[in-house]
Structure to design on (184 residues):
């Protein structure tokens, strides 16, 4: 099994940021949350607000979305072009995505590009609240073994050193920068 991070690894950019801007454009009522987002962003940058709290405050904009499933589906269709060609060139049937981005974006996006197995941060798509821990760092390893108790990672790909815990349990690991993949 090959395991991939999503954002800036096989997806060119940050899918959550892209989704938020897409939401502002396609659900204008969400624009009323911008003052809250700006205040929370300042508090986060000043290390006054923890990251998880910041993300939940940011995701509160989802209260104003309406049909989230339709929005996610149209976002995926308009952003499939962001999947890097090198991924398609080596794609396998048992590939797994493990991402810190919201599961309600990552799981359907993965399926839309032919990846049947994906896990990500469990975030309520209606109110932005997390159900559990952000799928990041050591949590990715815990979630991997929870789903695949005897799982073996042949190759692992990520753009971030925060994924070192997963890189350590893979037979081979690669650090991704743009379209370049270098041994970890």
């Amino acid at each position: 099994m090959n395991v991939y991070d999503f954002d800036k690894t096989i997806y060119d950019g940050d899918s959550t940021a892209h989704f938020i801007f897409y939401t502002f454009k396609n659900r204008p009522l969400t624009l009323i949350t911008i003052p809250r987002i700006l205040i929370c962003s300042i508090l986060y940058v000043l290390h006054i607000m923890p990251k998880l709290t910041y993300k939940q405050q940011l995701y509160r904009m989802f209260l104003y979305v309406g049909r989230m499933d339709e929005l996610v589906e149209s976002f995926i269709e308009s952003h499939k072009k962001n999947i890097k060609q090198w991924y398609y060139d080596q794609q396998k049937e048992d590939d797994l995505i493990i991402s810190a981005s919201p599961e309600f974006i990552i799981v359907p996006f993965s399926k839309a590009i032919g990846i049947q197995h994906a896990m990500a941060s469990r975030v309520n798509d209606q109110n932005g609240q997390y159900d559990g821990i952000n799928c990041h760092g050591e949590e990715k390893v815990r979630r991997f073994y929870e789903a695949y108790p005897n799982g073996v990672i042949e190759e692992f790909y990520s753009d971030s050193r925060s994924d070192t815990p997963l890189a350590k349990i893979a037979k081979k690991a690669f650090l991704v920068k743009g379209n370049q993949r270098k041994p970890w």
Observations:
- The two ends are 18 Å apart (CA to CA).
- Helices lie at 15-26, 34-45, 51-59, 68-79, 85-90, 103-112, 138-147, 164-169.
